[in-house]
Records
---
Amino acid sequence: MKKAILLATVLFACAKKDEPAPDTAATAVGPPALTAADLAGTWNGTALAENSDSVLFKFTVWSPTGTDAKTLVEGQKDTVAVTHMISGDSVVATSAAYKDQTMPGKPTVMFRAVGRMMGGKIVGTSTVMLASKPDSVLARTRVELTKAP
């Protein structure tokens, strides 16, 4: 019995120690941070239905500084002021209130969009809400913007 315990102790002591797995989280590189310069310029956009590839409308964004912009949606008469907030690899665009000429009753709305740079395009989602009730949701879309030449 003592020999068995001694043998088990020797085997346990001589066993190869498992090396801990390398910490890949510390060395992982994420996408590069966006800058205002990345967003500056003219962008042509398409809004798609949330769950299909149906094009809902097209729009153009003019952003001279990358932190503010004007957007013109097809079917609208006026441009809409938009501010950009950059955080890491993402941009959050929030519009000023405007009358949506394309919606029934032409309500005063605003939108908030979140996007990331992917393959030279900005892709993301957008939510349209009543300006007087920002927690309302009138529409959700997917958006894709390509920089104009």
Note: The CA atoms of residues 37 and 66 lie 6 Å apart.
---
Amino acid sequence: MSNIPLMPMATAVWLVENTTLTFKQIAKFCNLHEVEIQGIADGEVAKGIMAYNPIISGQLTREEIEISSKDENRELKIKNTDIKISTEDKKVKQYIPLSKRQDKPDSALWLIKHHSLLKDSQIAKLVGITKNSVTSIKKKSYWNYNNLNPKDPIALGLFSQKDLVDSIEKAERRIKREKKEKEKAKQTREVSNNE
């Protein structure tokens, strides 16, 4: 990342108009020549350029300008403008062709039969259909239930093995948590009955 401000000419116009900084300080900060800064001050250079406030944009602080105004040998220092970029992979929705879309209810049926501990919402998220569709397939009230054939969604390429394993682990954690909560509720009931 370079240490020059955004829109250096417009920033120089603002600094000339609104500060008591020397031409040399402004020139070094904006990476321009001292003669260009003098031309801006005389109105010969950058006639049509609107001034750009570096304080509002977060490139400079008022304190930095005041300190440099008092000491003409001190250079202006641009504020750190590094932007943190997330390195996490974001799941991107992929286009699913019509032929594979018809396989979604079949895949939901396969998941219902083979991984019964998954919640309807988890199956819906994995396969990419609505929760109501999953519920109706589970209750055998889906409009096309008689024509459904359970198909492995991983083999069809609807999602990866890792996605399935993650969902199963999440379901197992949920079941353990619910079991602990039931035991805790049972113990509190027993304690309250004994008292």
Note: The chain has a mean pLDDT of 87.
---
Amino acid sequence: MTTMRDRPNQFVSFRQPAFPADSHAPGWESLYDDHAPRLLLYARQWLADLSSAEDAVQGGFVKVWRGYRPGETPDVPLLYAAVRSEALDLLKSHSRRRAREDRAAARNGHDWWEDDPLVSQERAAAVQRALEQLPIEQREAIVLRVWSGLSFPEIARTLGENENTVAARCRRGLAALEKLLPEGCREPL
């Protein structure tokens, strides 16, 4: 069976940021090509809207890129932390906007929008529902380990946690995820 990790570019339809010609971009372009699909999946755990998750990934790249000097090696865990920060900022912004819209709709007596359509693939939807039931700490560790392919030391640096803590969260989360998934969706991780 083919997984997202086997074909990560299938799920990414957005373009990499345009790095200035005189910049230190060559390493950044390959970094973007290598990590954007996984970063997008990572951002999607907070942002159900694909375009918002794409914005978080691009914003994270730009934020980290601006802090580097020519010749420095990009730091992948820092990149994940920047995307996480961007995604959480967007989530707060969306929550505030939705609250304003709800108050306006309540005053006017109607609802002006419809929710985004759910993922049509039943298996992906089942995994997403199961992931959402996990505590955020476990969910983050699993997404970074399984779908993003980061090592435990890299995850620990990304989250600012101890490596053993991250490994324990991942183990407990995977055990809980296995119990939450319907029988047809279980597969060794």
Note: DSSP finds seven helices and no strands in the chain.
